Amino acid sequence: MSTQHLSEQEIIRREKRIELEKLGINPYPPEAFPVTHTAAQIRNNFSEETKDQFADISFAGRIMSIRDMGKASFAVLQDNTGRIQIYVKRDDICPGEDKTLYNTVWKKLLDIGDIIGVKGYGFITKTGEISIHVSSFTVLSKSLKPLPVVKEADGQSFDAVTDPEFKYRQRYVDLIINPQVKDTFIKRTVMINTIREYLNNHGALEVDTPVLQSIPGGAAARPFITHHNALDIPLYLRIANELYLKRLIVGGFDWVYEFSRNFRNEGMDRTHNPEFTILEFYVAYKDYFWMMNTTEALLEKVAVAMHNTTDVQVGDKTISFKTPFKRVSIYDAIKEHTGIDVSAMNEDELRAVCKQLHVENKPNMGKGKLIDSIFGEKCEHHYIQPTFITDYPVEMSPLTKKHREKAGLVERFELMINGKEIANAYSELNDPIDQRERFEEQLKLMERGDDEAMFIDHDFLRALEYGMPPTAGIGIGIDRLCMLLTNQASIQDVLFFPQMRPEKREGEAQAIQES
């Protein structure tokens, strides 16, 4: 194997691997190692009164530091639950005359980053630190790459994992070095499990719907396109699962939900990744008023599960998830923050307002997109505390039922928190004739060049013609909600492996040019 591009440390570690093998030690043994205790269990429960429970410990972890004291050493091991100190004494692990295991293997062939298993007993050092007194150890995995070394200057810590490029490309290293990163993802799982428990306890059924779709329906977005060779047809990665979940409501299920992995071939920024997770659920015989009540109750429960309080710190703001949430119509929101009443304006008048306010107003944008542009640029950022923005123009909502009292509007809300949309919900349109007409309006927008306009899904229209009961539906952005509840400023920090440009490796550029 070529070592041309290896660092000096990487070369030395490979040589140590060979030395271990020469001593008859497999640096990657196939046998399971029986772990009896975690770092957290020992740290949280060991005392002089309980030490008998820790007289026979079997523990495995990654070496994070080593302090050599000659015939004895201290080291810190890290497992899934945290770190704990171990004490290794030469004559304890090498009771006979052969001291190779300590003098050579421990002191010379092991490095920070290696994974070992140790057996021993718990004790408290003279400085009061709970530790493991090691009687034997086993090499479980030799690390061939050195971990970034934390450096300190002027009282501040610095390491390579603060570089976003490094963090997101080598998340596995980020997780090793920065315990708070792991905590973020553990909290994400708590959040999802709490939501799932709430829905299951209220009678909802979790389902799976297609990721590869022949028509990318259910949202206004640009899809990823692929090709199915056997069927010789184009297919689209899912931009939303809405229309399939509604088909299940037609089929007789009263409450269905899915944590859906969606894909949108659009821009990337601190709140957008082309691959993202959304929760959608649909409930028969309910409306958007019921959905507002359910949504705020659900999010209050999630906040308490994650923080033991309804108050959540987000940056320098404290956001309260205590119910009830504020409710404001979109027209009232625009009037409040721009001073302009757009409720009765046509497309030309709206375009003039957009120009006056210096917001986006491309020629292919219809009335709905123009109103959305005004709200997005002039109003959205004002809504820090949870607020339902309600009663949207029909042009903005092709899948939503017309408002029962207000002409030209639909029964829809978006939940804004910290100036961002977190959820989008409707009283679902179940009139097949009206739905077909809405799809046809979307087709006209597509012909004007709107590449986010919805396709006509004829099979969905056929399903509606069999009859869909009155239904409330919602989509909640799981990644954005996680950002809020874990106080992260970027979506990349709540995704294990966010999308990035392919990494260029040494020698690849020249090979590409030569080809």
Q: What report would you give on this structure?
A:
This protein is α+β, with helices and mostly antiparallel strands. Helix content is 34%, strand content 25%. It folds into 2 domains: 8-141, OB fold (Dihydrolipoamide Acetyltransferase, E2P), CATH 2.40.50.140; 180-325 and 385-494, BirA Bifunctional Protein, domain 2, CATH 3.30.930.10. The protein has helices at residues 8-22, 39-45, 90-93, 100-109, 164-169, 171-177, 179-201, 242-250, 288-307, 330-338, 347-357, 367-378, 432-447, 458-465, 478-486, 508-514, and strands at 57-68, 72-79, 82-89, 115-124, 130-141, 151-153, 156-158, 205-206, 212-213, 225-228, 233-237, 255-263, 275-284, 311-314, 317-320, 326-329, 387-393, 409-417, 420-427, 471-477. The strands form 5 sheets. The chain has an 8-stranded mixed sheet with strand order 8-12-13-20-19-18-17-16, with helices on both faces. A hairpin with a 2-residue loop joins strand 2 (72-79) and strand 3. Helix 7 crosses helix 9. The relative contact order is 0.09.
Query: Overall pLDDT, averaged?
Result: 93
Helix- and strand-based class?
alpha+beta
Number of helices: 16
- Which fold name corresponds to the CATH topology of the largest domain? BirA Bifunctional Protein, domain 2
Helicity level: 25-40%
Main beta sheet, described? Answer: 8 strands, mixed
Shape: elongated
What is the highest CATH level, the class of the largest domain? Alpha Beta
Q: Considering the protein shown, what is the CATH homologous superfamily of the largest domain? A: Bira Bifunctional Protein, Domain 2
Total domain count: 2
Strand content: 25-35%
Architecture of the largest domain, according to CATH?
2-Layer Sandwich
**Gap from first CA to last CA:** 24 Å
Low-confidence stretches: 509-515
Strand order of the largest sheet: 8-12-13-20-19-18-17-16
Roughly how many Å is the radius of gyration? Answer: 29 Å
The strand count comes to: 20
